[in-house]
Design goal:
The complex is a heterodimer of chains A (476) and B (359).
Chain A lengths: L2 H27 L2 H14 L1 H9 L10 H5 L7 H24 L9 H11 L2 H24 L6 H4 L8 H27 L1 H5 L3 H24 L4 H19 L4 H27 L8 H12 L2 H9 L3 H14 L12 H9 L11 H9 L3 H19 L6 H12 L1 H9 L6 H26 L8 H6 L6 H5 L1
Chain B lengths: L7 H11 L2 H17 L6 E8 L16 H8 L2 H7 L7 E6 L5 E8 L2 H41 L10 H23 L8 E2 L6 H24 L8 H8 L4 E5 L8 H8 L5 E5 L6 H8 L6 E3 L3 H4 L9 E6 L5 H12 L5 E7 L8
Parallel strand pairs in B: 5-9, 6-7, 6-8, 8-9
Antiparallel strand pairs in B: 1-3, 1-4, 2-3
Helix pairs in contact in B: 1-7, 2-7, 3-5, 5-6, 8-12
The chains are: A mainly alpha (476), B alpha/beta (359).
Chain lengths: 476, 359
């Protein structure tokens, strides 16, 4: 048995144990978002080892992936064993911190009722109106960015805030986050509660369905054009989480079966959409026409999409970053480094044309050395627990407005923002996942609390009627 | 989620407290397994960077690009491995050209540190030789031209000769170049420097990884097994079988046996009370704890499993459950047997594991 085999056994055993830990977290919090965050945490931390280690069993461990050729080779040695141990320690500490600090859902059996009441007074038309205005502005800026991208691919030209279009790009990023994440929060509530939809007249309901569909498709198209997979992933994760939490889990067993089939089909389509975006970016795709053509070609070749998703460098790029930091003999710890991405690029002498990822643990290691592992685990778990407590119930106008994004957005948003960056990303969690969408939702909550109920429905019936029977037994 | 008030976390933690040694043993096994299997000498990887710059043998002419790709493929050929023999036995080689092809990184991995170092040195020296041979060949070719030029100019540098001074100057330059070319052609390849890429020790981290993984996995399995409600462990478990409010008293180290006597005395208004253990008969000192306080008529019957509920009963029946030992299914059967058609079932007394110390 060579070292790669031993490490493989350790990694697989740990991932099995981690599944049990995640199951314990779900039993306590009853929150699909927490489990999705922890699962994606494992994806960006340890899952990369499952493809690295087998490749090192042949040719004396000298088979290297594309990322290794561009950055540095991974050798199955003591540093790599320490890398795996550090990720395992990070995930364990994060999950245990959530278990200790999260509020058990069973202590608040009325939580679902508060969300149901929120869905009954949330003004979806106001949200749609605000998002439409922001979207118009955003489309204008996208046009400017596309026109000014020069010969570079649209993906490369919009990756980093720099050059003459830096200002427009920064405004676009904030507008994109605000509209996309608010849309995800509103859509999750819209899909999660049948009673919340039924309080609108049929015409208004049809209009809202169309408006949400149009806004969703616009966001997908725009992010596909710029090669951005993260925002669509966050939206899909948020909508899926809301639906699971408010619709699927409270349903009866009989209701769940067809719901699960529909959900899995949509999740698969979402995954294929992300794969198609990944296949249609970068290179010489410097015009909208070229990107659209690449997307068309990509969609007609599902096999290529599956290969793209399965062979994506995403899990390896962040996984290998800690190894690069540990093996580096030039590491000078800087606890106050402002930009982890830049510090890592300098440390490993990354080529300027290579897009890569630095893992949250690697960023902490660059600051504190091995002590960074428990600090990373504790801080990540703490953020998760705080968001879980904020999102447990929707009580009061202001708290509800911020609880809504906190309930659904972290599912994919927290790993996307935090696990692929350093501690400086914690500010983005507050601003992007809670504050900005929370302010938009606040307007919708405020308008909803002031507007009279539709004349053809009794507001009490609409808001208090449980959408399904047997809610409480799942939440006790 | 469990429908009972005792949370899953409490059940899981209690299970871990009862069987704490299982995860500890699993962690030890994991660590030992790692030390046993990864405990030998580590395979190692060394690297040497061989410079392959452009070759300039003619001071005034253009530089020549060395055929680096061809050198690298020759280095990676089986013929080279054979010619290097024992020095590269069992070693895996990766040679990577720099983007501008002015250097080649030679990395070799071998089962031992010494073998890896030696094979990297051998491969790097071979590449260096190939490059040096190319340079020497170029220098030799240029040298032939220079020698021909010198021969042609040798007799035409006198003062009376046409272009004598210019020829003398050219001849001097050619002689200097010849000297330089001779030096280049005769140069031997430099001894390559190697450095270890892989870290040498992996035992501690590997053992810790497997210990953590095995220990955590075992802890998870033990905690999950604690969620099973096959055995009656908590008061809520009894309520779950016989209904809320049927637990009439509990005997434990913490609560003593307070209340048991009074409960039995109250029940005896309906006739002599029979205590029926759901599982095995309690130990003698525990029996004293249960029935000793009662002033009215009370009988400790045969365990339900043995009597099968056939005892002749004259009054209320109180079931005695040993928490942590008796099974939920036994309590369920006993409860059904004594409840049917307004049967004599009057409640349950729970006895904890530490209750034998109650006096």
């Amino acid at each position: 048995m060579i070292l790669a085999d031993v490490l493989m056994v350790g990694t697989v055993a740990f991932l099995l144990a981690y599944v049990l830990l995640c199951s314990a977290v779900f039993r306590v919090t009853r929150s699909p978002a927490m489990v999705i965050v922890l699962a994606l945490g494992a994806y960006w931390s340890l899952v990369g080892a499952l493809s690295i280690l087998p490749s090192k069993r042949v040719a004396g461990g000298t088979t290297f992936t594309y990322m290794e050729d561009r950055l540095y080779p991974i050798l199955v040695d003591g540093d790599y064993a320490l890398t795996l141990l550090s990720y395992a320690g990070f995930l364990t500490i994060a999950a245990l911190t959530v278990l200790l600090l999260a509020k058990p859902a069973g202590r608040d059996p009325e939580a679902l009722g508060t969300w149901q009441r929120l869905s009954g007074r949330f003004a979806h038309p106001v949200l749609v109106a605000i998002l439409s205005v922001f979207t118009a502005l955003k489309v204008l800026i996208v046009g400017i960015l596309v026109a000014g991208s020069g010969g570079a691919s649209l993906y490369t030209a919009t990756r980093t805030v720099q050059g003459s279009l830096g200002g427009e790009l920064r405004i676009y990023q904030y507008l994109n986050v605000t509209t996309s994440y608010s849309l995800a929060a509103g859509l999750a509530l819209w899909l999660g509660f049948v009673a919340g939809r039924q309080r609108y007249r049929p015409t208004a309901r049809r209009f809202l369905w169309l408006a949400y569909a149009a806004l969703f498709l616009e966001v997908m198209a725009e992010n596909a054009l710029l090669g951005n997979r993260a925002v669509p992933l966050v939206i899909m994760g948020a909508v899926g989480t809301g639906w699971l939490r408010w619709r699927y889990l409270p349903s009866t067993r009989v209701e769940r079966r067809p719901q699960a089939a529909r959900f899995l089909l949509l999740a698969l389509l979402g995954l294929l959409a992300l794969g198609a975006i990944g296949n249609s970016r970068g290179g010489d795709l410097s015009s909208p026409g070229a990107v659209v053509q690449a997307l068309e070609t990509s969609v007609t070749q599902p096999r290529a999409i599956v290969e793209q998703v399965a062979g994506s460098s995403e899990k390896i790029a962040s996984h290998m970053s800690l190894y690069g930091v540990i093996r580096s003999q030039d590491l000078v710890r800087d606890p106050f480094a402002a930009n982890s991405y830049q510090a890592y690029a300098t440390l490993v002498d990354a080529p300027a044309d290579q897009v890569f990822t630095v893992h949250y643990v690697a960023a902490w290691w660059m600051r504190l050395g091995p002590l960074g592992v428990p600090v990373a685990g504790l801080s990540f778990g703490l953020v998760l627990a705080v968001l879980q407590r904020l999102a447990l119930a929707a009580r009061g106008l202001v708290r509800s407005a911020f609880a809504l994004p906190a309930a659904v957005l972290p599912a994919a948003g927290l790993p996307v923002i935090v696990l692929r960056s350093g501690p400086e990303s914690l500010r983005a969690v507050v601003v992007e996942l809670v504050l900005l969408p929370g302010l938009v939702c606040l307007a919708a909550c405020w308008a909803g609390s002031r507007s009279p109920a539709p004349p053809d429905t009794d507001p009490l019936d609409a808001t208090l009627e449980p959408p399904h029977t047997g809610h409480q037994e799942h939440y006790v | 989620m469990s429908p009972h008030a005792t949370t899953d976390i409490t059940r899981g933690l209690d299970a871990l407290r009862r069987r704490w040694w299982v995860p500890v043993a699993a962690a030890i096994v994991g660590g030992a397994l790692a030390l046993a299997t990864a405990g030998g000498e580590d395979s190692a990887t060394f690297e040497s960077v061989v410079a392959t710059p452009l070759v300039q043998v003619n001071a005034t002419g253009p530089s020549t690009v060395p055929p680096v790709e061809s050198m690298v493929s020759q280095l990676q050929s089986e013929a080279t491995a054979k010619s290097l023999g024992d020095a590269v036995e069992g070693a895996a080689l990766v040679a990577t050209m720099a983007v501008d092809k002015t250097s080649v990184s030679v990395r070799a991995t071998a089962p031992t540190i010494d073998a890896a170092r030696e094979s990297t040195q051998a491969f790097a020296a071979e590449l260096s030789e190939l490059y040096q041979s190319f340079v020497a060949e170029l220098a030799d070719r240029r040298l032939a031209s220079v020698d021909a030029g010198i021969a042609a100019l040798d007799g035409s540098t006198g003062a009376g000769q046409p272009n004598g001074p210019e020829n003398a100057s050219t001849l001097a330059e050619l002689r200097v170049e010849r000297e330089s070319l001779t030096e280049i052609a005769g140069k031997t390849a430099p001894t390559p420097e190697v450095r270890q890429l892989s870290s040498s020790s992996n035992r501690g981290a590997t053992a810790a990884l497997l210990a953590l993984a095995f220990g955590l996995l075992a802890a998870g399995v033990v905690a999950m097994s604690g969620l099973s409600t096959r055995r009656l462990r908590y008061r809520d478990d009894i309520d779950g079988v016989t209904g809320a409010g049927t637990l009439i008293s509990e005997i434990s180290r913490a609560h003593g046996n307070w209340g048991v006597g009074q409960v039995i005395d109250r029940l005896s208004a309906r006739g002599p009370v029979t205590l029926i253990p759901v599982g095995a008969r309690p130990a003698d000192d525990l029996r004293e704890s249960i029935v000793g306080e009662a002033t009215s008529e009370v009988e400790l019957g045969e365990p339900f499993a043995r009597s099968a509920g056939s005892a002749a009963l004259r009054g209320p029946v109180v079931l005695v459950v040993r928490l942590g030992q008796d099974k939920r299914s036994d309590l369920d059967l006993a409860h059904r047997a004594f409840s049917v058609a307004d049967g004599p079932f009057a409640g349950v007394i729970a006895v904890t594991r530490d209750a034998t110390k109650v006096r």
